[in-house]
Amino acid sequence: MSTTIQFVKYQGTGNDFILLDDRNETFPVSKELIAHLCHRRFGIGADGLILLKNAEGYDFRMVYFNADGAEGSMCGNGGRCTVRFAHDLGIFAENTRFIAVDGAHEAVADSEVIKLKMSPVKGLQKQESYDFLNTGSPHYVTFVDEVAKTEVVTLGRTIRYGDIFGPLGGTNVNFVEVVSDNHLKVRTYERGVEDETYSCGTGVTACALSSHAHFGWQGPVTIDTPGGSLCVTFQEIAPEVYDSIYLIGPAKRVFNGEVQVS
């Protein structure tokens, strides 16, 4: 027996997602089905799949799944795309409050840009060659001279599955080049996708906070990714404690359609 699923595809600086309106709780969640839908040869193709659900006390709930079908941690660009989806559905007009796996979020939408408030960040581990912090998802941040020449997939996979992070469930890996004051270039290897993505929202947030720790930048920090540019603003309210973190950038509808699944 087959089921027809209505979906909409969105992208935020090239980070692309399948969005489903699941307020009626009918989507048949399974790791195999989600991985199939996200497959770029045999499915719709996406970096992840997101369900928009009802949530008491909030405008909606965001439930995010990685491209491998497993439920994931917070996704910043996915959050911005979900806000755009909810806005397109008429759930809110300009300001919204929703809940995700890492807690409550606020966002503002206009015709071009989504301004998403990220969760507070406590603690930034500075090691000799990298920083590690959690911005809703775990992130390894290392600075390089020329990010365009960096072997992102090879190095990222080695770090993600290595002796330090592999036993802990792995980590996302960000390679960062300083362009000028308050301006970075970033490329990211994402766990769950297990490849480089065009952009990673929690990743660029981590890189902006790391730049503050290293260079004292106060923001806003502009971050160029392969999929476009994002902006991150923040406040350090105590040593290595950050709040009022906003991830700002475009989120756009690509197309809508339907797919039949068994």
From TrEMBL:
InterPro entries: DAP_epimerase_DapF (IPR001653). It comes from the Bacteria. The lineage of its organism: Bacteria, Pseudomonadati, Bacteroidota, Cytophagia, Cytophagales. Signal peptide: none annotated. This is Diaminopimelate epimerase. The keyword Amino-acid biosynthesis applies. GO terms for cellular component: cytosol. It is found in: Cytoplasm. It catalyses: (2S,6S)-2,6-diaminopimelate = meso-2,6-diaminopimelate. Substrate binds at residues 15, 66, 76-77, 172, 190-191, 201-202. Homodimer. One of its GO terms (biological process) is lysine biosynthetic process via diaminopimelate. SUPFAM superfamilies: Diaminopimelate epimerase-like. PANTHER family: DIAMINOPIMELATE EPIMERASE (PTHR31689:SF0), DIAMINOPIMELATE EPIMERASE, CHLOROPLASTIC (PTHR31689). Belongs to the diaminopimelate epimerase family. Pathway: Amino-acid biosynthesis; L-lysine biosynthesis via DAP pathway; DL-2,6-diaminopimelate from LL-2,6-diaminopimelate: step 1/1. GO terms for molecular function: diaminopimelate epimerase activity. The active site is at residues 75, 200. The keyword Cytoplasm applies. The record marks 139, 190 as: Could be important to modulate the pK values of the two catalytic cysteine residues. Catalyzes the stereoinversion of LL-2,6-diaminopimelate (L,L-DAP) to meso-diaminopimelate (meso-DAP), a precursor of L-lysine and an essential component of the bacterial peptidoglycan. It comes from Arundinibacter roseus. Keywords: Amino-acid biosynthesis, Cytoplasm, Isomerase, Lysine biosynthesis.
